[in-house]
Design brief:
Largest sheet: 7 strands, parallel
CATH architecture: 3-Layer(aba) Sandwich
Number of strands: 7
CATH topology: Rossmann fold
CATH class: Alpha Beta
Number of helices: 8
Distance between the termini: 45 Å
Bound molecules: NADP nicotinamide-adenine-dinucleotide phosphate
Strand content: 5-15%
Radius of gyration: 17 Å
CATH superfamily: NAD(P)-binding Rossmann-like Domain
Strand order of the largest sheet: 3-2-1-4-5-6-7
Length: 253
């Protein structure tokens, strides 16, 4: 896939945060964007804001029915499928002593298995278009955020998965890449009931000095990096850090 215009892009988690910004960016570049998520009102607001280049589908990607609905909506809206962006994700923070098995299974289901299955169920269409898959990891694989082992482990799985799937699918012309964002405004912690919107904003501001470029990022900056990954025809298996230097873990000596 060498151009965004008229391409068909399916975005899981397009109703808020990074997914929302990515949908707005690619639609503005002329792509036919399909967004999915569980909260209809969020998806509808994004789709209304974007206009005819975007359709939404209320779908929980941890269910096969939801995934197939999302794929068929994208196939219809975009007349095929050129890129699958696995952006949906959830947070689960707990110290080791307090881990709950059902919550661990839930987080691996939404953050890892759902994207794997969505990729599996999309693959025949991506082969037809010589398209690509993007996973979204996190700076949590670069720096140890104490007490967030479930989330960090799920993101580590996505980076490993990217390499293996890139190898597996390369000969069929499908590329698989991964982006590793630093701090960007989103709803992941609020949805997990960890912080209010105000507390989440304060937390992000506190992280600013940890970014060597002196600020948090924007969803559009993540979108532009994804744009590179889905149009770069000789790039597969890449794990691309787009984090303002947060992942460097710089020490002033
Ligand atoms: N923001 C950051 O600083 C940051 C940094 C590094 C990585 N990331 C990653 O970037 C991605 C987006 O995060 P964000 O911060 O933008 O959070 P966000 O605003 O909460 O976006 C995540 C989206 O995923 C959707 N989602 C969750 N579970 C789903 C499911 N089972 N089926 C369908 N949709 C589902 C949510 O919508 P519903 O609840 O309506 O389904 C939500 O819109 C995540 O993978 C996150 O781990 C974020």
């Amino acid at each position: 896939m060498s151009q965004i215009k008229e391409s068909s892009i399916l975005i899981s988690g397009g109703g808020s945060g990074i997914g929302r910004g990515v949908a707005i960016y690619f639609a503005s570049q002329g792509a036919k964007v399909t967004i999915c998520g569980r909260r209809q009102e969020k998806l509808k607001a994004v789709s209304n804001q974007i206009g005819t280049n975007c359709v939404f589908v209320q779908a929980d990607i941890t269910s096969k029915e939801g995934r197939l609905k999302a794929i068929s909506t994208a196939l219809e809206h975009g007349k095929g499928l050129d890129a699958l962006l696995n952006i949906a994700g959830n947070m689960y923070r707990k110290n080791l002593e307090d881990l709950e098995e059902d919550k661990l299974i839930e987080i691996f289901h939404s953050n890892v298995i759902a994207g794997m299955m969505l990729s599996k169920e999309s693959i025949q269409y991506l082969k037809e278009s010589s398209g690509s898959i993007v996973f979204v990891s996190s700076v949590h694989t670069r720096r140890a955020f104490t007490g967030a082992s479930p989330y960090a482990a799920s993101k580590g799985a996505l980076e490993t998965l990217t390499k293996v799937l890139a190898s597996e699918l390369g000969p069929s012309g499908v590329r698989v890449n991964c982006i590793v964002p630093g701090a960007v405004p989103g709803e992941i912690n609020q949805r997990a009931g960890l912080f209010s919107d105000t507390e989440a904003k304060i937390r992000l501001e506190k992280l600013i000095p940890e970014h060597r470029l002196g600020r948090i990022g924007t969803a559009e900056e993540i979108a532009k990096a994804i744009e590179y990954l889905i149009t770069a025809d000789w790039t597969t298996g890449a794990i691309l850090d787009v984090d303002g230097g947060l992942g460097l873990g710089a020490i002033k000596d």
